Amino acid sequence: MLLRPGLLRASHAGAGRDSPGPAAGRSWSTGAMTARVHRKARADAPPGFFACEAAGLRWLAAARAVPVVRVLEVRDDALLLEHLEAAPPTPDAARELGRGLARLHDRGAPAFGCPPDGWTGDGFFGPLDAPLPLRSGAYERWGPALADLRLEPVREPLRATGRLSPGLAAALDVVGRRLRDGAWDDGDGPARVHGDLWSGNVVWTAAGAVLIDPAAHGGHRVSDLAMLALFGLPHLDVVLAGYQEQHPLPTGWRDLLGLHQLFPVAVHAVLFGGGYVGQLERLATHYAGG
After folding, report:
1. Which of 175, 160, 171, 184 has the alpha carbon at shortest distance from 281?
2. Which of the 8 DSSP states describes residue 122?
3. CA–CA separation, 214 vs 223, rounded Å?
4. Catalytic pick among 18, 122, 148, 196
5. What does the DSSP assignment read for 68-120?
6. pLDDT tens-digit profile of 128-182?
7. Does 173 participate in catalysis according to the annotation?
């Protein structure tokens, strides 16, 4: 799942930094067809870990909106995926990625916080060797879902690692209240989101960009864009322009990128400490109005 310049990867349904690439390919036979595959494995994976990731990939692919890595086989301790051959990113591929993400989000979800079709209960968010739970629920509004399913559960890991200062705790309290009161609700319905869309989970191929390693759920469309912005992506401005061509974003959405980054930055703070703790405190204080 994640581990970018330091983050966790939420998907793969929470797996570790393991993306399809040439070194990971091997032959796998299905009847008359033979294809190269990428194998992700962990002998002591939490129950359902790889099944959850597979469900997320299939749910995103079912939207027929943007290319998603194909699931070949699911095991208790491994996931077999189609092998992807990397290629340099291009502006044309970036624009089509933006359009595809907008189409994906427009396919919608039953509720904010809901898991992908084919999976029930909580998912996973974090590196392969230490994933955190990704809480599931069914909310009519995005604000309460973010407060209850993301910001509240991450407080205990922050506390346990000694990274929840009194000031940070107070700021998260205020942000949670504002979210539940609807301060940032915009009337946009639940989107079908990737959930961990940092640059490492976008594989550029000769045919275009392909999504891998999701923490898929019903969420807010800006959350995926905020993840892309958090660690940067080649041709990001072109991706965003393509998105806006397909689906114009709400007024002031750029001002809320940091709000959508609170949870992933908090998870980084739990896992890595250091500058992520200060970044989290600054974001929380800003949106608390401090």
Report:
1. 171
2. -
3. 13
4. 196
5. BPPEEEE-SSEEEEE---B----HHHHHHHHHHHHHHHHT--SSBTPPPTT--
6. 788 889 999 999 999 999 999 999 999 999 999 999 999 999 999 999 999 999 9
7. no
